[in-house]
Structure prediction request, 419 residues.
Amino acid sequence: MTGRRALGRRFGWLWAAYAVSSYGSGLGLGAFPLIAVLVLHCGPAQVATLAAAGRAVGALIAVPLGPWVEFRRKRPVMVAMDLTRFAALLSVPAAFALGRLSFAQLLVVSVVTAAADIAFKAASGAYLKALVPPEGLLVANSRLESTTWTSTTVGPPLGGAAIGLFGPVTTVVADAVSYLLSALGIRAIGGTEPHPARTGAPRLRAGDLLEGWRHILGHPALRPLLFNSIVVNGLIMASQPLLAVLLLGRLGFAPWQYGLVFAAPCVGGLVGSRLAHRLVARFGRHRVLRAAGALRACWPLGLAFVRPGVPGIVLVIVVQFGLVTCCSLFNPVLATCRLDHSAPDRVARTLAAWSISSSAAIAAVTALWGLLATVTSPRTAIAAAGVLLLATPLLLPRREHAPQDELTGAGVQDVSDRV
Prediction:
């Protein structure tokens, strides 16, 4: 398994489409809170509501999308979700130009884009499972993971400069256009995609909505991985707005310093994602998954000890670099494991259930930690999250399990995956 494995022209188009939308999202990262504060003059409560409610309601709307995606051709669904996000995001600069932009519109757009994002991930994972051969699975996931972190490193600083030069909705326009270009790239993949055969009832049933969760919770490897992921992601994401309050408020970090301490460590994302397939080839997937999953839980507690000035900047960069490196190593291995353990006829429902669970958990924990920070202090809440994270390796699977297709004899032909 080498980093130079050829995955074919069609994967190249998919990767290019993913890169375009990823860089667009990097440019637009944090645009909605910024617009809410600078344009609509919203307070902290409204900004928090925008972050949590958009994710939570979007996850709720996405519940029926998993089974809907499962029994449809995946490429048209991906194109439709890209165009949905394009139209939703483009409505923001249009309303701004007409002087009609409101907080309610930002909230609606957040919900629509969150739901479309979940549906896109479910479709793209199932589509990649049928596009890339099984032996190229981890390499494909690592390439997409490295693209994510590269865009996160480059996008926000460029987005900040673009906002300063051209106005507050500039990056939203860029993000919207990136989804349009992504849709065109996915269309350019070409080839034929058979219509998925539906087994059982000809129409969507209530039980189909829960099939993804039934599969995950009944699987000895996926169940602990889901619990580990939602707890870790929830605690890490819940700490981010509190860290912003601590750094920009009480510790007096300048905005450029705040951007630096989060952009620079994203280089670790390239390191981890590039190492993933090499380490798995040498040590095995289970060992790498457990090691990276344990190591990523060790870093965030250090953020509770940040101080003003250069020492504080160095501490945050070191902690974030370690965290990002471990996460970028863990994520492609997790994505590979998740799809290896899902039969082709339930991939979309499994991925949708996973994304919905993660989004709901992040929203809930973010709201809870905001309350904790209000009652105590941001530093105390960050420390509490760091302490709890130290226990999360206990949720990782203790032993390796054979892939789903080996257990069922389902024989995945021409298949691989991506979240």
About this structure: The radius of gyration is 21 Å. DSSP finds 17 helices and no strands in the chain. Residues 405-419 have pLDDT under 50 and may be disordered.
